[in-house]
Amino acid sequence: MDDIIKITVIDREDVPHELDAPTDMAMNLMEVCRSYELPVEGICGGMALCASCHCYVMSDHELHEASDDEENMLDQAFFVEDNSRLGCQIQMKNELDGLVVKLAPVD
Amino acid sequence: MIQTDIAIIGAGPVGLFTVFEAGLLKLKCHLIDALPQPGGQLSEIYPKKPIYDIPGFPSILAGELVDNLMEQIEPFKPGFTLGERAETIEKIGDKLYEITTSKGSKIQAPVIAIAGGLGSFEPRKPPISNIAEFEDKGVEYIIKDPEIYRDKKIVVAGGGDSALDWTIILATIASEVTLVHRRTSFRGALDSVDKVMDLAKEGKINLITEAQVVGLEGQDRLSSVHIKDKNKGDYSIDVDHFIPLFGLSPKLGPIGEWDLEIEKNAIVVDTKDYSTNIPGIYAIGDINTYDGKLKLILCGFHEGTLMVQSAFKYIYPEQKLSFKYTTVAGVNGFE
Questions:
Q1: Which of B5, B10, B21, B198 could bridge B305 with an S-S bond, Cβ 3.0-4.6 Å?
Q2: ipTM, interface predicted TM-score of the complex
């Protein structure tokens, strides 16, 4: 189908989960993970106001630059690396087919 | 010691609105919250963000919603114990519980409503393996008395307002202040950022950016911190105190130890009245779970409303409860 992409989410036990993610429902990565009941809290509901959806982008997809809000929130997260992002700020789009992300450890 | 009809643990929107609905049944409420102000997440995480799914408000700022709720429940004169975490619940009699807080306050009530959201907000602790060993032995997450830092060597970590503000204050008290931050830019208020930059330029503080504190060392108490610096590699600096300021995050905390049935970090309730497995204890809002649960403020309001009806019958099984609409005489007749 056109409006479904495949993404891989590697959980905190290093188990990969291949997920179908709709691109026509304005969903972000945090919401996709939650809908598959992966252990992503999304405490703030996707406003980049908590860091509970912190993840690492493992594939070489070009993502938009992190906003100030996102960077500011990553300041409060731990285990932050150069490829750290907040899942709630990654919108599901067709270009992200094949995206691989790893969930960051929780504090 | 405080006595009330319903002790509400959690002064977020759901806990606050429950005061109103309880008030309509002439039940008095007392709210307990670990945060120093009411409003829970709304005040702590996103006071300036608009919320769009409150009935009757196309858009309302989270902080305004809290202010409105406070105004709405004012006629019912709720009590507040703020800045104290509910630690224990003890059954001290037939239909009587006693809650003890982290500061030793005691609240007695026949009914407890847990409206604890995601738990209580606690400082985020950096994932340094031995950090617990140095807590109160050189590591502090909250600054209670700046005087203890007089003429000491301090490392502050973080990039937000509290890290900046405390760096500025401690610069005048401590003998040496180092601020360690992950990036070169800061998210705090602009004038605080400028002030910190000026202090660094004048050599009054050490500013280490693109770096993180990754290790702690010391015999009995903290003596040095290990820094991973993107530009200069790894090194240690001698310190008396390390103050990580990374904001607050919610933790279930003691709620998990109250013999309540817990599933996925939430309290299992009966949707008939949001009662838990313990008679007289209810759970409402984000803290509870049931089939079809949605974590919405709106749903929490509904849960609190039904819950107080059940609480009334539990407290006064002999009395007939007649439901009145506020449209008849406002809230005046209920106070």
A1: B21
A2: 0.73
